[in-house]
Design goal:
The structure holds two protein chains of two kinds. By secondary structure, chain A is mostly helical. Chain A has helices spanning 11-18, 22-44, 54-74, 84-104, 122-129, 133-143, 146-157, 162-169, 173-194, 204-223. In chain A, helix 8 (162-169) crosses helix 9. The relative contact order of chain B is 0.11. Among the domains of chain B are: 5-63, no CATH class; 140-150 and 158-266, Immunoglobulin-like (Sandwich), CATH 2.60.40.10. The chains are: A mainly alpha, B alpha+beta. The interface between A and B is large, with 88 and 71 residues.
């Protein structure tokens, strides 16, 4: 990602902007609007149908960023190494992708996203704040097979329609959807591995049961 | 957690890391003309396919910075939306980052240390020499005078004072406590678009720190519409020169106070 951006606003100004102080928010808007427009523009300009809607999409992204007392923006941790502008760009790029897909009528994206879900942005926030996205992108190239890589590039990067991507890959619609779901889980696991978190098991109860059994056996063995 | 957030953010990251993204970034920041960016992307190529040309044209349209009018309108719409959302979600303001919890103890230790240092400093510092400006009390209120009286019958008085475009405005800044020292005032007018303008005013500073400004709507450069007058009053040497300085230093400054008042300018009386 380029590093052309001017310096971030001081944290005290950002805090006042997010708290709703109009003058500080106006300064915040002027500082970060070019960032938002750039991040959203990258998700939009390849689609002729979206270009006339670009200003509306940018405004929708701003509305999402500032919804519920700027909840999304408050997740940024100024003490970490991720600059605020980069955080704004990433979150805007993601929101822009979702909103663009809605305008394009790509129904495979859940169109209503409850902000409440973001209360648990744990892994993605830690990945962003630790500046590990480059390493995650390398892992995508190193560890995913050709089909998954293609699916990632065409669907999550280019924003193509899922069924079109599936058709090019020779997959049926249902199989494409399942493959996309599996790809999301794989990326989640890769991210957790980068963060040093043990990957989640599909059957946590069985593992717990096995551990209890082993402990019981050891205890009985020791007592004999 | 929603299972698609990692992959969607990664998608945004990959798009931003593409080589062409940097050029468009410079265009969005206003550092490079869109045509110049397109020329650099073309490089030595003489011709483009119809599709390539169309993508390039769309990129030029999207990344070129918007007009000042559009930016003002979008900011005004956002501000009204935020005001409408208001206190409904006041509880959302205190988001606790899960990753921050281990640091609380360190912060507490740091804060206790800082508090001890402050206490020691206050105790050990010698008394201020004679003639040094008094500590700025930092609390002023603004009173507006000469507003147009448009109240008729039982209509409630408007919340925002109104001034005819050819009228006068009287501004009085009153300190909560007596202020004695080299006082000054700088004034800005702001129309909610984010761009504020400094205005030069002649202020009369009375004893005890009361400031009076007698001016006109025209002298302030105000046109019909709603405006905010933002005044910084405090020690002359510490006053902000620019709007950015004012907004940035306002919260922390102990040398000046910032007061605001909204006014509505209406067509001629």
């Amino acid at each position: 990602m380029s590093n052309l951006e001017p310096p971030d606003l001081p944290p005290s100004v950002v805090a006042r902007a997010l708290d709703g102080e109009e003058t500080a928010f106006a300064l915040f808007y002027r500082r970060y609007d070019p960032t938002v427009r750039w991040a959203v523009g990258l998700r939009v300009y390849r689609w002729p149908r979206l270009v006339p809607l670009f200003d509306d999409i940018v405004q929708e992204v701003w509305c999402e960023l500032t919804r519920r007392g700027c909840k999304r923006l408050r997740y940024h941790d100024a003490e970490r190494r991720l600059p605020l502008w980069r955080y704004v760009a990433l979150v805007s790029g993601r929101l822009g992708w979702r909103i663009a897909k809605r305008h394009l009528g790509h129904q495979e994206v859940e169109l209503v996203e409850a902000l409440e879900e973001d209360d648990d942005w744990g892994v993605v926030m830690r990945i962003m704040h630790a500046d590990l996205l480059d390493r995650l992108a390398q892992a995508v190239h190193g560890e995913l097979d050709e089909t998954d890589r293609e699916l990632f590039e065409e669907y999550f990067v280019r924003g193509e329609m899922l069924k079109d991507v599936g058709a090019r890959l020779g997959l049926k619609e249902n199989a494409t959807y399942k493959r996309k779901e599996r790809l999301q889980r794989k990326l989640q696991t890769l991210a957790e591995r980068l963060l040093g978190k043990p990957p989640r098991t599909e059957h946590p109860d069985l593992v717990a049961l096995a551990l209890v059994l082993v402990a019981t056996l050891v205890e009985h063995g020791g007592g004999a | 957690m929603s299972k698609d957030q990692v992959i969607q953010v990664l998608g945004a990251h990959v798009v931003m890391a593409e080589p062409t993204a940097e050029l468009w970034h410079r265009v969005a920041l206003g550092e490079l003309q869109a045509n110049e960016a397109a020329a650099r992307l073309l490089g030595a190529r003489q011709e483009l396919s119809e599709d390539e040309q169309s993508v390039l044209d769309r990129a030029k349209m999207v990344f070129v910075p918007p007009s000042e009018e559009l930016r003002r309108a979008q900011l005004a719409a956002l501000l009204s939306r935020r005001a409408a959302e208001g206190e409904d979600h006041a509880e959302d303001r205190a988001v606790v980052l899960p990753m921050r919890s281990p640091r609380i103890r360190r912060w507490m230790v740091g804060l206790l240390g800082a508090a001890a240092s402050v206490a020691l400093t206050v105790w050990l510092l010698p008394a201020r020499p004679e003639g040094h400006p008094r500590v700025f009390s930092g609390a002023y209120t603004i009173e507006l005078e000469k507003a147009a009286d448009t109240v008729r019958g039982a209509e409630p008085r408007p919340e925002v004072p109104m001034y005819p475009v050819d009228g006068k405005i009287g501004i009085r800044l009153v300190p909560e406590e007596e202020v004695d020292g080299p006082l000054g005032v700088v004034a800005f007018v702001w129309d909610q678009s984010g761009s504020a303008r400094r205005v030069e005013l002649e202020a009369t500073i009375h004893e005890h720190g009361v400031v009076e400004i007698d001016t006109t709507v025209q002298a302030l450069g105000l046109t019909v519409g709603e405006w905010e007058l933002v005044l910084a009053v405090g020690w002359v040497r510490a006053l902000p020169d620019t709007w950015e300085e004012l907004v940035t230093e306002e919260a922390d400054s102990t040398d000046f106070d910032v007061v605001r008042a909204r006014v509505r300018v209406v067509s001629r009386s």
